[in-house]
């Protein structure tokens, strides 16, 4: 996929917005807008949404350290992107917000489970150890899933704002 200068600029800025939103929200554990942005970018940009998503992933590693905890970032956001790519492009307007919110919530509820295989491999955990790690994280996954559901209220407005910005850029 070849990028235009405009796309390179927009995707870089969107990746920075994702990263900045994460940093701003760090005072409340497991509550953030990353799922909102991942879903909105995927709905609008489809395959090209991977550019801002991985800009965010690389910025996170660059500023927080490319340590073992970062390795699952290479795939956990791609899982959400892939789930959204499987959704129909055109959904009824009343149904779309609920579907997006549900997908966002499910990703939050499953985050620890998605993260666990890398942790098991990196830290030599047995299958039982991995399951124990998942169970120990369930309260945090609950917070993550519930907050993702409510933050998901912003998905459709973010999609609308991006589309409006894209239309105004095309006119100029």
Describe the structure.
The protein is built from eight helices and no strands. The longest helix has 28 residues, at 96-123. α2 (34-45) packs across α4 and α2 crosses α8 (155-171). The protein is mostly helical and 172 residues long.
Quick structural gist:
With 172 residues, the protein is mainly alpha-helical. The chain has helices at residues 5-24, 34-45, 50-64, 73-86, 96-123, 127-136, 138-151, 155-171.
Beta-strand portion reads under 5%
- Name the assembly state: single chain
Apparent shape:
globular
Radius of gyration: 17 Å
Largest sheet: none
Give the topology, please.
Layout: H1 5-24, H2 34-45, H3 50-64, H4 73-86, H5 96-123, H6 127-136, H7 138-151, H8 155-171
Helix pairs in contact: 1-3, 2-4, 2-8, 3-4, 4-5, 5-6, 5-7
Key phrases:
mainly alpha, about 170 residues
